[in-house]
Amino acid sequence: MWGRWWGRRHRIVDWVAACAYFPFVALFNFPSPSGVLSYLVQGAPPGIPTQLVMIVLFGIALPGLVSWAILLRRRNPGPLLVLAAVLMVATANFVPSVIALYSYAAWYSDARRLSGWTGVLAALFVVFYGIGPSNTAAGAALFIVFMGTLTIALPLVAGLWVGTRRQLIANLQERAQRLEREQHLMANRAIVAERTRIAREMHDVVAHRVSMMVLHAGGLEISASDRATADTASLIRSTGREALSELRGILGVLRDENSTEAPTAPQPVLDDIERLLDEWRAAGMSVEKQVTGTPCSFAAQVERTAYRVVQEALTNAGKHAPGAPVAVRLDYGSEDLEIVVSNEPSAGEGSGRGSPPPSSGFGLTGLRERVALVGGTLAAGADPDGGWRIRAVLPAAPAADQDTTTSNDDGGE
């Protein structure tokens, strides 16, 4: 109920003001010593008809019009301003001008129109109260200063203060709403970025480990000397393949397909590449590593990206070209670090690895995002001999240059 009444407070105030101003307007219409209508009434023949006309005109009609204009003052202040000027000319009644100036100053921001109406009403007030026949010069000056302050200046200042305060509150509310919307957008962006980061971490860590497990199980299944060991390896390989399929569905839910930003990278760096190669060699892959140039340290983000390029390339080779030799080349240049991972065509069914494990579909996409994040380039495609090659060029920025950038990448694995 309170909210319902509060929403209608302006309308209630207008009705109260219209009813309250009605008797005041009627009262100040009759004793006016000046005004155009007062001179016309004085020349009219005396009697009951004349008094009845004065009562109807000055006591009912004109005050009723003013009350009607008060009800419209928030939507259309023009009628109230016009009636204020008309009553000032007709009966020298200054009461309507008080609420007219206040209403326009409080609810409208047209300074030129407000100045014009203030000047008109002030001039009419001076004419009909300052140079009337019953006023002396000193009395007229004192009366103009005192009454002009009450009827012109004070309502104008009060209206301007109320209008300015209302605009300030409205601006503050709009600003608070805008900040709230921006906070919601930032929160949503953070959620999307975190979901994408989780998806990438799962792909980089879990998917690669499970892929290696599946490949190990496939090799054990082929080389096992007894049937029980082969069955156990087959079960491990099948379970791993199912886990990769489920993981692919999870990645599809978590990953934002429209996102072009790459979140932070995990912890492994260039020094961990040799350990990665040993793991794949232990799984039966033939991996050859070649290093050219002078090895040096890079920014942590660049080294992590380089590690992920090699990891993804080896995983893809193990999935799609089982048994094929793989060559990993690291070229340390003066301005960039070039990484090339290539594999020969698959050895076919004779490799004994079975069908490749399912792919999540986001490996190369994630690599491109990571490489783009550090300002590098990535190219992947088939070789003329039927093999596959991944080439990444990363900027060789010193580690100190990206300390502030990599400070956000510490939440890796």
From TrEMBL:
Sequence segments annotated as region (Disordered): 344-364, 394-413
A GO CC term attached to the entry: membrane
Molecular function as annotated in GO: ATP binding; phosphorelay sensor kinase activity; protein dimerization activity
Domain Histidine kinase/HSP90-like ATPase, residue spans: 303-397
Residue intervals passing through the bilayer: 12-32, 52-72, 79-102, 114-132, 139-162
Keywords linked to the UniProt accession: ATP-binding, Coiled coil, Kinase, Membrane, Nucleotide-binding, Phosphoprotein, Transferase, Transmembrane, Transmembrane helix, Two-component regulatory system
Coiled coil spans: 162-189
All residue ranges annotated as the Signal transduction histidine kinase subgroup 3 dimerisation and phosphoacceptor domain in the record: 194-257
One matching Pfam family: HATPase_c
Signal peptide: none
EC identifiers of the protein: 2.7.13.3
SUPFAM superfamilies assigned: ATPase domain of HSP90 chaperone/DNA topoisomerase II/histidine kinase
Protein name: histidine kinase
The species this protein was found in: Haloactinospora alba
